Amino acid sequence: MSATAQAVSREESPLPGGAGSGLYGWVATVDHKRIGILYLLTTLVFFVLGGVEALLMRIQLVRPNNTFLSPDAFGQMFTMHGTTMIFLVVMPVLIGLANYLVPLMIGARDMAFPRLNALSFWLLPCGGFLLHYSLLAGGAPAVGWFSYAPLSETPYASTSGVDYWTLSLLILGIGSVAASINLIATILTRRAPGLTMQRLPLFVWMVFVNSFLVILALPALNSAIVMLFIDRHLGTHFFAPAQGGSAVLWQHFFWAFGHPEVYIMALPAFGIISEVVPVFARRPIFGYEFVAASTVAIALLSFGVWAHHMFAVGLGHPMDLFFSATSMLIAVPTGVKVFAWSATLWGGAIRLTTAMLFAVAFLIQFTIGGLSGITFAVVPIDWQVTGTYYLVAHFHYVLFGGTFFAVFAGIYYWFPKITGRLLSERLGKVNFWMALIGFNTAFFVQHFLGLMGMARRVYTYPDLPGWGLLNLISTVGAFLLGAAVLVLLWNIVVSLRHGRLAGDNPWQAWTLEWATTSPPPAQNFDRVPPIRSRRPLWDLAHPENPDPPVGGRAARDGFVVEKNRVGMVSFLITESAFFLMLILAYLYYNSHGMSGPAPESLLNAQRTGLYTLCLLASSLTVWLAEQQLRAGKTVAFRWLLGLTMGLGGVFLFGQGREYFRIFHAGVLVNSNLFATTFFTLTGFHGLHVGVGLVALLILMGLAGAGDFKSGRIEAVRSIGLYWHFVDAVWLVVFSVIYLKLLL
Amino acid sequence: MPTSFNPIFEPASAQTAAMAGLFELVLVICGVILAIVAGLVGTSLMRFRARPGAAEPRPCFGNRKLEMIWTAGPLLVVGWLFILTAKGMQQADPPANQTPDILVTGHQWWWEVRYLPGGEVTANEIHLSTGRKWLVRLASADVIHDFWVPELARKMQMIPGQTNQLWLEADAPGTYAGECAEYCGAQHAGMRLTVIAEPPSAFAAWLQNQAQPALGPVSATAASGLKLFQTMTCVNCHPLRGVVTGASVAPDLTHLASRHTLGAGVLALTETNLFRWLKNAQAGKPGCLMPDLKLTDAQARALVAYLETLQ
Fold first, then answer.
1. Mean pLDDT for the stretch of residues A508-536
2. Less packed terminus of chain A by CB within 10 Å, N or C?
């Protein structure tokens, strides 16, 4: 390379050594590669923290009647361990890998929304810091990572730990949703020419499907924790049974999030395995279409299995049977994947690099975890083993032995691309064997402990035959696993400095990220190779035997979408899910009679109906405004925007009057569950109207400053769509509350 | 704390026998599936290793027929499992349409046991007679607990604001251990239950005894112990029929000395443990709701003497 070219590429390199590599460069970056690295480094820190929390628990459990940790300290440890590992490690490490790799794998220059990407990242250390601050502020939450009510309500959880937990999860949830919206928009709108949806690498496809899971599942969590927070601070009783609330509703709402969440933690890992196994078996994935379709099947089914976490709640046999059926069904597409990966190995030329070792271990360990999961789907078995260490063993096999081993495989596979140097294979083998032995030692025996009757979340246990020995073995395994992680960290540190230079494609892999330098330049690609199949680099290397062109000679999909529209539609999907949960809560609590203030005596349907008409009219005016802008009439546009804002303001004024009247009648948010659900639902809607008004004001300002003259009015159309959404939600809310629809 | 090493697979009732049988069958099915996958993977690792210098294997993109087989096959297995599940649920948890026999209420961190219709009350121990099914109604006074006696019955949550029920029966006399299986706060680990199954005549005698109010104290020390019980804050929490009414938040002590454990299974019920408990309950069960009453040794001894009379 010429001296100038070298200087240019050094300046643009995202890694230490290039200009812009100072701290400010990293803090202010919007480059997806740097953001991906930031995600990975941050999750590493939380992984160590969460691991320490686990090891402290294992020390307490090493022998019966131990006194290393008090019961309350132990409760804080398992709550923090679960919350940290799920929200601060597994989810973000997968998002971080996706962030780094997806634009490269689709031949793009960056994500669709680079600044949103940076925001998504920074919400992670923010939320993580807030959660851990609880340790200094009266104690971490000690109610378990799923925080069952009423244990998490103020009388039983009187420190502010649960409040830090809810606020931090809200922040982290916003980050996850933003990252997923960004990934959807990127994958739909930023693919290189020739890369049709059918030719996507499986990692990208699974991340794509997974992103829809995130935007639909996180709102369920957000709605539940918002309601818990309101209970704790405004004296309401969503989940306080003594005053008419429902502890079971918390379980439904939480697991409506919680179950898709475990697939959110699995699908991208499946994607990693689907990349690693073919490359190191030297064969394309066996049955791409079935694997891709099974991903969609899993995503759809994952919303229909949540109550398998509730077989012991007493929902009744018909409900239990339904969820048993769906939970068993979801095993079928998962099995399709396991068989496909196994068949990819068959007849291949397997290279047992460290990445491949972790991937193979994943196959067996995930199968074990998946099979123990099937035993839970058989309801009478669940009635014995739920709430025991058999369950703890199950989810660690799928989440650690499965997902995290896949992450290890991904680290060994993509480290050379990210840093330009290979991780040491020698240290990698040591890392692998220690992790394999440590993990299985720690967790296999826990199946037996559960079958022997040891419940989960116990800070100690009696000296029964075999319990002490098996717990000791588990603790030893856990420490070995911890040591394995230290070896990985050491490998990373050493290889960053002395690792063998990787070159563009050290593994002779076939997807686009390997068609550029390691690490890639700032713009990712100087030139993207021609794409006619799922393995463009195989086609380049084997022109005499290319893969059959997928989808014929088509260079594009049949559809065209624009990124702002995709982003806004995805956002509206997630907001719809949030409002749906609040509406369901309203319907649930108001469908039986209750004492106290009632809608008939308090609400004024006619007046609110008038204000509703104003809001609907504002949808018309904002649409007219769009038409004027499209025709280039900026002044008319601004007037119509102003009218829209005025009508929206009138609506909010009307809401305010309604609220004032209700307060005047002595009714507050905690008066009864009608008041609570009324204020929560209309309050959040009003908030959305307010945010919409601010957005319209900004648009008006931008138009005044001369934006939108070139005819690129996508931002305006997107905000218009948001405004129509807010109106549509109001129509539903008005019908349910004022017109008593569905009640 | 199970009395058997392997309580789930040593069922002592018809319901748990159904669950255990089903579990054994499903484990075998899972074992076969694991063997198939491990076999495929293991064989591949042995037979299909890369050899240096060899050319790349010919690409194979799949085999539709095989993929359909490994979709349809598991579907059939799953269908079979579903039928087994439905049957198993009927056997393990048959429907109940009678009034309950026993009402068990979960508290942080003890079990309130109330017999219907007679109203006999005890705590942390359930006595049953063999040879019949008992319908247990479950409730909670505070947070969610989970009733679990692995040798005898399914798990069932005890949820405030809702009642659940399950069948409890024992094939043979014996002592069966249970525990709370849903995290309910600091002493979730210390919320253990004992179920004692007895032949009908022994059970009837026990129940009759439980129905009696407390006998008067027999010794002077015991009498001073009773005096202490009445004048210190014990009466605010602990029901003791014949001595105090109105208290409800702590275990009923009327027949404390007839029980086998203290603190819901945390300690054996001996004089020494009772003394230690009264002096410092927190040392035996940290976080439990019994306060430190700052008793002197003499006061504690008197109380122990009285409590020991509560057979």
1. 96
2. N
